[in-house]
Amino acid sequence: MKRLEGKNAVITGAASGVGRAASLLFAREGAAVACVDVDAEMGAETAAMIRAEGGDAVFIEADLADPASIEDMARACMAWRGVIHVLFNNAGIAERAAFEDIALEDWNRQIAVNLTAPFLCSQKLLPALKAAGGAAIVHHGSIDGVLGNPTLVAYSASKGGLQPLTHVMGFWLARHGIRVNCINSGALRESKQGIPVRLNRDNRAGQPMSDAQRRATPMDRPGFVEEAADVALYLASDESSYVNGSVITLDGGRTGLTPGTF
After folding, report:
1. Which residues of 190-214 are buried (b: 16+ CB within 10 A; e: fewer)?
2. How many angstroms separate the CA atoms of 236 and 113, rounded?
3. Could you give the percent of the chain with pLDDT greater than 70?
4. Which residues pair with 140 in a beta bridge?
5. What's the chain's average pLDDT?
6. Does position 262 have pLDDT exceeding 80, yes or no?
7. Which of 10, 98, 104, 247 is 20 to 30 Å from 25 at the Cα level?
8. In this model, does residue 239 exceed pLDDT 80?
9. What is residue 148's predicted lDDT score, i.e. its pLDDT?
């Protein structure tokens, strides 16, 4: 029995990285997948890859920095399927800048995509999630949102809001049979399937994990986007039926140690 057999899933940021890995994995596990992204070409490619494997997928274009676009996306998803069993709020953007150099426009866009969009996508898709009689929302956070990354100021602040959002949504939505959990990931830089990783300029340029990050990671390697997709699958499936309001850390042990002690 496939782990998501007969279920409908919406995945944001589906054009690349963890979003594409999760879209492919969820479909292989039996889900019909709505692939949401601002990149029409690569988002449609993800959906086409699923269909080429015999899966059921549709691409829905949306700019998650725009509340009106999120409204349109939610309507399109609910027209596609009146019942949504899984929402993976995966989309994220990150740009490096010193604190003094961050433009308000850049700050606002990162807050909008990384924090406001998970709230709005969840809220606007709530009728279809309630209709499932048992659904799962998964946010994709970051360890930078817990400790803060001085080179990713806006990204850290925006991802930081997902942790309490997960807790309070887990409280409010449990009465509707909807579980809400979060994945706080570390350096996801590679793919086992050749999926492009495009979170920030470093990823897009193909830069390897920094020496500092490697030294701080007990497992001595970056994460694969497929490893994050695996955790998302667990949280989306009935295997995690009593997991709610929780944050799972996926960072190779990096935040499990006191900095500077080794």
Report:
1. bbeeebebbbbebbeeeeebeeebb
2. 21
3. 100
4. 183
5. 96
6. no
7. 247
8. yes
9. 95
Q: How far is CA 225 from CA 63, 141, 143, 222, 228, in A?
A: 22, 14, 15, 10, 5
Specify whether the CB–CB gap between 95 and 154 falls below 8 A.
yes
E strands, 101-170, where?
Answer: 135-142
Length of the chain: 262
Domains annotated for the chain, with CATH where assigned, are 8-254 (3.40.50.720)
Please check whether residue 138 is in contact with residue 235, taking contact to mean a CB–CB distance below 8 angstroms: yes
Tokens encoding 209: 């994990």
What per-residue confidence (pLDDT) applies to 185? Answer: 98
Dist CA 101 CA 262 (whole Å): 33
Catalytic positions, written as ranges = 155
The alpha carbon torsion through 122, 110, 141, 207 (nearest 10 deg) reads 140
Instruction: Say what the pLDDT of residue 30 is.
Output: 98
Q: How far apart are the C-alpha atoms of 44 and 58, rounded to whole Å?
A: 8
136-158 pLDDT, tens per residue? Answer: 999 999 999 998 999 999 999 99
Phi then psi dihedrals of residue 200, to 5 deg = -140, -175
pLDDT (tens digit per residue) in 170-188: 999 999 999 999 999 999 9
* Coil vs helix vs strand at 12: strand
Cα–Cα dist 92/117, whole Å? 9
Q: Residue 199 has what pLDDT? A: 79
